[in-house]
Protein: Amino acid ABC transporter substrate-binding protein
Amino acid sequence: MRVVRPKAGLLLALALPALALLAPLPARAAPAPAERTLADIKARGHLVCGVSPGVAGFSVPDGQGRWTGLDVDFCRALAAAIFDNPEAVRFIPQSSAARFTALQSGEIDVLARNTTWTLSRDTAAMNFPAITFYDGQGFLVRKALNITEVKQLDRATICLQQGTTTELNLADWFRTRGLTYRVVTFANSEQTLGAYESGRCDAYSTDQSSLYGERLKTAHPDDHVILREAISKEPFAPAVRQGDDQWRDIVAWTHYAMLDAEEAGIAQDNVERMHREALSPDVKRILGLEGTYGERLGLTADWAFRIVRHVGNYGDSFARNLGDATPLKIPRGLNAQWNQGGLQYGPPIR
Structure:
């Protein structure tokens, strides 16, 4: 089946693999002084975390301005490790276009905003310490079109958000298969979804995790479906400035500690008991009862205990923000533990 072309008269731009349409990457900057970030955070008394202005399940403010989501939990985990206080963090929403400049300028300490780790970004004076969510680019379509595979979008019109990797992914995928399409781009997700709902395009393409939330915003969610097929790899990772290995290690091992805690059976609802009993060597090392692992990071011995007590392990956070008990109901999939068929793997704390 081929999708019928949209009505004539719409202002549609032909899809081109134009790198210039993507948000510009900052030029390589001089490395920051070694081990400066943690000291600055401690002196300030709180962490400054850059997050998305609003992606369901990842970073969303409520009516009282309190942020929730998987990325938000990660920032709170960092604050818990440093201050023993998950509230010692200030969230600054960042657009796709401004996020890297905010990091490089020092406006934020860490960028935790559904950002894909790529080579060009990794070599633009940024480091991506750990992959916190494995995603892929997908498509939201109307059920009435009876589309089940991406290749059926040949000659379709697709809505996209500017300043992301989605445009190049589309160009690569369709060109490789000899298919054609038209694209309409917009400045933000609200405009993109509005155009899709109004019928300006046949499909809305972005990260599959985001599409779960976008689908719920439509007037009739049951009229739309997310195709199962992904056309790209989108490893989401927090970003930090290059030149501060200590801060990079802290950000990486905060995620790994949440994974290791989950694998060891240490959760938010049992961490106090596990701390008292600490029957296995793994549990003792994770909770700071054996070794000097926290001190090696510039933190206290109980840094991981603080994280789990205040925020939980990775599975706790996933279930609370994205899992079956939430409206999103995103499958764990690639984000399951390595021994459960997924890719999440915490190096050992030892």
